[in-house]
């Protein structure tokens, strides 16, 4: 037993020793190339010479291995990067390390978005400063890069980023909006300024066509509510607006109210998807004996219903109806459709167990937090036992 414990202890010490050697090697590699980073202020781009199409840069592969990069993943993601003659991986690693990124985070960033190693030090510094104008700390930016490297490294044009930030601020978008755009819809900033202006002007025109009084505020408001709009085409958005108006026979005032409210999320769906979902909803409602006016009212009150796929929506409705709930009750409280089929099924079973009367008490209980639902069930269970 003592011998086995001794062997186990030795193995632990060896693992710790190897880990320290690896960390020391990583730091040494960065320090060794620090002077090179200072002098090499450019790196490879689309015009830089590459090796033959089937030959990878061995020196690059060695550097990436030292950094802990998953070579196999990098090869799958962007194989062309591994064939470039000139890259900037060590300078990138040093730059990110100085910003607070760990070895693991740096390796993960390069593994998932290898093109990051083609950005020059000048480009990185300028872009980082532009992001710091929006975010409060380096740590916030590192966190975003860890989640989505593409958001920072995708574009090589800092001028577009600078112009777009200034333009979006001029619209009245605040820092919180800009942070959401950078993290969830970064392509907005790699768009040309003209393309983003085109979408804003298009939205302003829609507002005026529908009788709105403040087109600038309208455009700013719906972009703030759905940041993905700026990375969609005006053709897609326009077609969706027309489909909503004609399919649901909406008046200008009704459509304007829908777009200014939660209906803005519908605009980013593909045209075919929205058309299909509207048709499926109308068909299901007709089978259940409802009129077109009921469908219209449902969408105006709960536009998210057009976000739910046909099969999922039908399953949820069938589950609720089988559980003893009337379609009229669903129309009055459509938010119950926000929950998963599993959640709806489990809650219905619990309510049936305690003899809950939907006809008498309504269905608000299905649209409650887990904590409140459990408390209600416990209370009802106590009553039924008495």
TrEMBL record:
<comment type="subunit">
    <text>Monomer.</text>
</comment>
<keyword id="KW-0806">Transcription termination</keyword>
<dbReference type="Pfam" id="PF02536">
    <property type="entry name" value="mTERF"/>
</dbReference>
<dbReference type="GO" id="GO:0003677">
    <property type="term" value="F:DNA binding"/>
</dbReference>
<keyword id="KW-0809">Transit peptide</keyword>
<keyword id="KW-0677">Repeat</keyword>
<keyword id="KW-0804">Transcription</keyword>
<keyword id="KW-0496">Mitochondrion</keyword>
<keyword id="KW-0805">Transcription regulation</keyword>
<dbReference type="InterPro" id="IPR003690">
    <property type="entry name" value="MTERF"/>
</dbReference>
<comment type="similarity">
    <text>Belongs to the mTERF family.</text>
</comment>
<dbReference type="GO" id="GO:0006393">
    <property type="term" value="P:termination of mitochondrial transcription"/>
</dbReference>
<dbReference type="GO" id="GO:0005759">
    <property type="term" value="C:mitochondrial matrix"/>
</dbReference>
<dbReference type="InterPro" id="IPR038538">
    <property type="entry name" value="MTERF_sf"/>
</dbReference>
<protein>
    <submittedName>
        <fullName>Mitochondrial transcription termination factor 1</fullName>
    </submittedName>
</protein>
<comment type="function">
    <text>Transcription termination factor. Binds to a 28 bp region within the tRNA(Leu(uur)) gene at a position immediately adjacent to and downstream of the 16S rRNA gene; this region comprises a tridecamer sequence critical for directing accurate termination. Binds DNA along the major grove and promotes DNA bending and partial unwinding. Promotes base flipping. Transcription termination activity appears to be polarized with highest specificity for transcripts initiated on the light strand.</text>
</comment>
<keyword id="KW-0597">Phosphoprotein</keyword>
<keyword id="KW-0238">DNA-binding</keyword>
